[in-house]
Amino acid sequence: MAVSGSGGSRADNGYSSQQPRRRKGPSALATAYLVIYNVVMTAGWLVIAVGLVRAYLAKGSYHSLYYSIEKPLKFFQTGALLEEYLLITKYLSGIVPSSVVLTAFQVMSRVFLTWAVTHSVKEVQTEDSVLLFVVAWTITEIIRYSFYTFSLLNHLPYLIKWARYTLFIVLYPMGVSGELLTIYAALPFVRQSGLYSISLPNKYNFSFDYYTFLILVMISYIPIFPQLYFHMLHQRRKVLSHTDEHKKSE
After folding, report:
1. Where is this region: Disordered (predicted)?
2. Tell me, what's the pLDDT at 7?
3. Of the chain's two ends, which shows fewer C-beta atoms within 10 Å, N or C?
4. What is the distance between the alpha carbons of residues 7 and 138, in angstroms, rounded to a whole number?
């Protein structure tokens, strides 16, 4: 399990046309399917954003807003697993020049944080750190899925491209901070309850300490966060500089 990050932090999964060499694109049917998928995901994360704003206005406080968007968050974040499947199939067919491994780490870590930490450890759901990563994820995903949708339609507004490759500079550390603080807050409750832990003796002669596993997950952020962050900085320089050069040539 590894860092998921935010702000466009997932490895660029190939919807963009900014590639150094020409590749065979998906068929018309596949494109239509991908457009529908990305439109639905954009709408889903917009629902989450609206839910957060409405809950904040109703309560007059940003505390414990998680409950107002819990169900759609679980649904649409888990829906990213379908995106991972699409990425793998496109990658294997030579359409997408992305790192499946990096993207899989990010997708799975978000799903892990949603279900194995926030859902499973009820006590952390009121932590402000949860709102921190939820807001970062929400802004990120609205931009990202909009980016993919317009890219597939070959009508990508510069503002969306700029947001995709710029806002991650703030949103990524914000999301990672929220994730780490949430896991850290869950540790005492996991240790006390023995959640998901398996102790010896048992018929399988196997033991598992979920508390230790969460600590290892936190440690895994150390090597992976810089790698993903600098990957996006590299993508930003490549994509936006390409756009600027194109504008000058017109």
Report:
1. 1-23
2. 55
3. C
4. 9
Residue 182 and residue 133 in contact, taking contact as beta carbons nearer than 8 Å:
yes
Q: Based on the structure, what is the number of domains in the chain?
A: 1
Catalytic hit among 179, 210, 211, 229: 179
Annotated catalytic residue within 37, 66, 148, 172: 172
Does residue 246 sit within a domain? no
Spatial CB neighbours of 249, under 8 Å, sequence gap ≥ 6: none
Asked, for residue 247, whether it belongs to a domain, the answer is: no
Inside any domain, residue 166? yes
| 172: annotated active-site residue | yes
- Across 121-159, b (16+ Cβ under 10 Å) vs e yields beebeebebbbbbbbbbbbbbbbbbbbbbbbbeeebeee
The confidence score (pLDDT) of residue 95 equals 43
**Domain limits at 44?**
28-240
Considering only CA atoms, give the Rg of the chain: 19
Given a cut of 50, the residues of the chain with pLDDT beneath it are 11, 14, 16-20, 92-97
Indicate yes or no: pTM above 0.70. yes
